[in-house]
# Entry
Amino acid sequence: MSQVTRLPIRLYDVVLANGVTLSPFVWRIRYALAHKGLDYEIEPVSFTGIRKILGGGYEQVPIIQDHGRVIADSWKIAQYLDRTYTERPLLFRTYGEYVAARFFDRWMFRDVVPHMYHCYVLDNYNQALPEDREYLRESRERTFLGGRRLEEVVSGREKRLPAIRDSLQPLRVQLAETPWLGGLRPNYVDFCALSVFLWAAAINTLPPLERSDSLFDWLNRGFDLYGGLGRDERLHPLAPGYPTGRPPEHRLTA
Ligand SMILES: N[C@@H](CCC(=O)N[C@@H](CS)C(=O)NCC(=O)O)C(=O)O
# Structure
């Protein structure tokens, strides 16, 4: 498809009251689009608004609209982008790379994200668009939290953070060996993992990491990718007193 005539892709994105991207699934698609060098415009939507867009029938973001085609689900979108824009850098250079990314994602969404979620679900609620709050409380308490109140679920979270930090050890060990989870360059595994931290940075009022965490070397490089895709002044620190929105000072003075 010619670059000259191509219209920007529309990316439907659930945002917080401050306009920041919330969903880790949307963050990874923002990385995917940037990796492929595709222009996109964000169409902000509320949680309660998802069912009203595109004629109804959609319940989750990300959704993209590209030349009249509508694609929902981050994995389907990533595959669509590779299939459609074959001349652009691939997200999955082999089928094995796709499978490895899916495997990695399954690990993170089983062994890491739910524990983080149980620390930040109230922060999410407090920072959601006003029209989403009632829906978020009701749906989360009923479907994800076994009927428990958000306040009850997050209670004592500071005591749970050390175990969450420990669960990230496979990332640290790998990143001591290779600069990226994708090896010598970032790939979709990096995008998926960085997106989990961007989700945490979007909402946390209690940073999950410690300033000394070796993960920051990779996180900082990852947030700086594509002109600083992960740098937004509205993001919260991931370690106490260590802003996410700005590149670290040593990089500014380098
Ligand atoms: N498997 C989907 C998951 C997408 C997903 O869970 N999206 C959430 C936001 S993080 C959503 O839109 N939820 C709408 C709702 O709960 O009403 C994907 O990879 O895109």
